TrEMBL record:
Biased composition (Gly residues): 48-63
Membrane topology, record value: Multi-pass membrane protein
Subcellular location per the Swiss-Prot or TrEMBL entry: Cell membrane
Segments crossing the lipid bilayer: 92-112, 118-137, 149-171, 226-255, 296-313, 319-345, 352-369, 389-420
Pfam family, one: AI-2E_transport
Protein name: Predicted PurR-regulated permease PerM
One Gene Ontology cellular component: plasma membrane
GO-annotated biological processes: transmembrane transport
Sorted UniProt keywords: Cell membrane, Membrane, Transmembrane, Transmembrane helix, Transport
Species for this entry: Geodermatophilus aquaeductus
Source organism, top-level taxon: Bacteria
Length: 460
């Protein structure tokens, strides 16, 4: 449609009447006659020259002989249901927004509660991780008719003896070579200064001395703050030792009484929920155990081959660096990077740039073989998280809880993935509580106690 503005004098021909469209037929004036007559008797505006006033109408279009001021719109005319649909969509959006806000508020509250209980949760989590490592040996002894308490105590003492033996082997080497490495590091700093003074940098010696003096002054001015950081670090080490001892005590009870946990937990629920509780508990435990075993194998392979390379190149602190590489594997991607960086740094300080470059090549080769060959093979039976998810989990854990958070980030992400997949399968009606042999867990017992048994078919 085309719409005309009122008072347009060029729309009215000199003789009055309806305006003539360009190229219109001779009878167009007659066709417009009735419409003009509708306005007969209307006083003409003062500037119209005495002729009849132009018709004020919203009509028009391709067949209208009059010349309009606006072209017709290409949008369709609104339907009567449009308003109702807009209100329905707005109502749905408002409900979804309120639900999302409630979920976010619940997550914030849960995070706040977990933060307040972190002092209790951390030893429990570490105890569970220790239990996943110690349980296979404990289960072996229990199957050979060892009492649960004796089997758990023997395995835990052997584990502590192994850790103590590693520390006894590593500590003397570090103590013997730390002074030599410090002197070599000072020589390395002097070499770097000489390198910067030569081409292509040609940095003046006075400028380097000024930078060193500024750094020294900065350290001296912040001595009290640095001392506060040192005290905080010492306190953190003390709390870490307390958490470690408590985690080992909890691990002892977990491997001694652990088989009773799932029956007790399932017995607290109803008959419909018990199979899901038992199945989900088993899946999360299997995932956590699989993660520990996989990362231990990866760490051993990395530590072995990198240690062999360092030993051949006569780099000092071979055993400490190999142990660091082994434990660094439990923080995927980032841990291996940090351990490799330490090896390259010590090689640079002790042996020079060429050996450091060779060590860098060895570390890079071993990590590429691990990431592209070993990881896909050993993770075939376990969980599989994308590398981006692993990096985000480690980063988030490290920002929330430091080194412990970086260590726990990937296991927590894996457990969240297990729970999500289980719930998804339940919603899709796939019965994840049913094992591969077609049986499911159910609780049997009386007032004296309850046990878990296997029943065929799906639970009712």
């Amino acid at each position: 449609m085309r719409f005309r503005l009122p008072g347009r004098r060029d729309d009215v021909p000199a003789g009055g009447g309806a305006p003539a469209a360009p190229g219109a037929a001779a009878g167009s004036s007659a066709a417009a006659g009735p419409r003009t007559a509708a306005g007969a008797g209307t006083a003409a505006p003062p500037d119209s020259g005495g002729g009849p006033a132009p018709e004020l109408t919203g009509e028009g279009g391709a067949g209208d002989p009059r010349r309009g001021d606006h072209d017709a719109t290409v949008a369709p005319a609104p339907a009567w249901e449009r308003g109702e649909r807009v209100r329905s969509a707005t109502r749905t959006l408002a409900i979804a927004s309120a639900q999302l806000l409630l979920i976010c508020a619940a997550i914030v509250v849960i995070g706040w509660v977990l933060g307040k209980l972190w002092v209790i949760l951390l030893p429990v989590i570490l105890g569970l991780l220790f239990a996943t490592v110690l349980w296979p040996a404990t289960r072996f002894l229990r199957r050979h008719h060892w009492p649960p308490a004796l089997a758990a105590a023997v395995v835990l003492l052997l584990f502590l003896g192994l850790i103590g033996g590693l520390i006894a082997v590593i500590a003397p080497q570090v103590a013997d070579q730390v002074t030599e490495l410090a002197d070599q590091a000072a020589d390395g700093i002097v070499q770097v200064q000489q390198w910067l003074q030569g081409p292509p940098f040609n940095v003046d010696a006075d400028q380097l001395d000024q930078v060193v003096a500024q750094a020294t002054d900065s350290v001296q001015s912040n001595a009290s703050e640095i001392a506060g950081y040192a005290a905080t670090g010492a306190s953190a080490v003390g709390n870490g030792l307390i958490n470690l001892v408590l985690a080992l005590v909890l691990a002892f009870f977990f491997i001694k009484d652990g088989p009773r946990w799932v029956p007790w937990l399932a017995a607290q629920t109803g008959p419909r929920a018990a199979p899901h509780v038992a199945a989900l508990s088993q899946k999360t435990w299997s995932t956590l155990s699989e993660f520990i075993k996989q990362q231990a194998l990866v760490g051993f392979v990395d530590a072995f081959f990198i240690g062999i390379g360092l030993w051949i190149l006569d780099v000092p602190l071979v055993i400490p660096l190999a142990v660091l590489t082994f434990f660094g594997a439990f923080i995927p991607i980032i841990g291996a990077f940090v351990a490799g960086a330490f090896a390259v740094l010590i090689a640079l300080v002790d042996e020079g740039f060429t050996v450091a470059l060779i060590v860098f090549g060895i570390v890079l080769l071993v990590q590429q073989i691990e990431g592209n060959v070993l990881q896909p093979i050993i993770q075939g039976r376990g969980f599989n998280l994308h590398a981006a998810v692993v990096i985000l989990a480690v980063t988030a854990g490290g920002s929330l809880a430091g080194i412990i958070g970086a260590f726990l980030g990937v296991p927590v992400a894996a457990l969240i993935a297990v729970v999500y997949r289980y719930v998804r399968d339940v919603l899709d009606g796939r019965h994840p509580e049913v094992a591969g042999d077609g049986t499911h867990t159910q609780v049997r017992g009386d007032d004296e106690g309850a046990v878990l048994t296997r029943a065929p078919g799906t639970p009712g």
